[in-house]
Amino acid sequence: MISSPVSISPTICAPQTVLVRASRSSFLRKYVGRPYLAAGMWIWRHLPAFLVSSRPARAYGAHLHTLIQLRATRTQSVGTFFFRNRPELDLLVRLLDQKAKGSILDVAVLACSKGSEVYSISCAIRRSRPDLNVRLHALDIDRDILEFAKEGVYSLKTTNGSRALDPSSLAQVADVAVKTFRDQNTSIFERMSSEEIEAMFHPEGGLLKVKPQFREGIVWQIGDARDPNLVRVVGLQDVVFANRFLCHMPREEAEACLRNLARLVKPGGYVFVSGVDLDVRSKVARDLGWRPVTELIREIHEGDSSLRRGWPLEYWGLEPFDQCRGDWKMRYAAVFQCGGTGGEGIQRESVLPCVTGETPGE
After folding, report:
1. CA–CA separation, 277 vs 312, rounded Å?
2. Residue 3 contacts by C-beta under 8 Å, 6 or more apart in sequence?
3. Could you tell me how far CA 29 lies from the centroid of its own chain?
4. Which pLDDT does position 158 carry in this prediction?
5. Please, which residues bridge with residue 220 across strands?
6. Separation CA 292–CA 299 (nearest Å)
7. Which of 3, 115, 165, 283 is surrounded by the fewest CB atoms within 10 Å?
8. How far apart are CA 68 and CA 29, in angstroms?
């Protein structure tokens, strides 16, 4: 457990407060705008490494990030990785420790993209608790990407690496390669060891197919996370994953979507929500009385290196963990236990234990 927050003197907070106000100034954005932002980005890129982690530099980074978020055109991406955030999966396993042997576990993964998160979750659960009856719902709004994820077949190489294959299988391999590497700057397998790849996949003619034990119990469905009737489609869930897609929505839309997703969670269940504007997540969590799970809070916050590298120059970048903030537990928790926010008219039951003594607003 992380120790209590350290108080910050007014002199240290003052520069950050001024920069935050400046970031939100409509005058600054309208009349200075792009040249000011371009100069700021140049300055950040040329800061000496030893200064980047200093408090004044971080305050300036937060100022830049706010400006970038206000000006950015947000678009969805299907780029992803297997085992993208390992501490997140470690916490999931810990939360399941007190589940009764042989009981049912309902899990929903929203915006499941290419399926890597779904299969990573399935793998983590089945390796740690093979006794559980897992009912895993995987949803995405894009039918083509959902069908690709459902197949569970991926390519280790780009199309350039498939030229030496038999011509009869070349077209299929090339198509899988294109879909595997869509929106990817690096391999979807980048965060797996060769031993893990061997344990999770069967090789098939230049491709890799997820083994049957990790595909079992998964229901793939077209679904929009913004749909108010979603709870009637998938039912109430013990655990809901809403990771790394809300940041690509305008703030108002992301907030409405997150409030809608809360209706999917059984009382006492959990929501995993990373890759979202922190102000949006904190506001919704406070309003709905969510309890931040502080176990592994820092490890999870820093567990996705691509999000951390993107700050402050990408709108989806994730700010550094700052335990000096008075609201650090609520701001940096990516996992919350939910109260009685489940959908109306559906039989509800609380099945998971509370693992944190934190109270909302701490």
Report:
1. 12
2. 323
3. 29
4. 73
5. 138
6. 14
7. 3
8. 10
Q: Which residue has the tokens 């719902």?
A: 137
pLDDT of residue 24: 56
Q: And the tokens for 152? A: 């569970």
pLDDT per position as a tens digit, 77-106 = 999 999 999 999 999 999 999 899 999 999
Distance CA 210, CA 119 (A): 8
For the record, the structure tokens of 174 come out as 């090339």
If we measure between CA atoms, which residue out of 284, 264, 272 comes closest to residue 342?
Answer: 264
Q: Per the structure block, which two tokens stand in for 350? A: 């609380």
- Give the whole-angstrom CA distance, residue 149 versus residue 186: 18
Average confidence (pLDDT) over 161-190? 77
Torsion of CA 326, 332, 337, 340, to 10 degrees: 70
Q: What is the pLDDT of residues 228-242, one digit of tens each?
A: 999 999 999 999 999
The rounded distance, in Å, linking the Cα atoms of 295 and 142 is: 34
Beta bridge partners of 292: 336
First and final C-alpha spacing in the chain:
14
User: Buried b vs exposed e over 160-192: b needs ≥16 C-beta within 10 Å?
Assistant: eebeebeeeeeeebbebbebbbbebeebbbebb
Distances in Å between the Cα of 222 and the Cα atoms of 13, 143, 287 are: 46, 6, 29
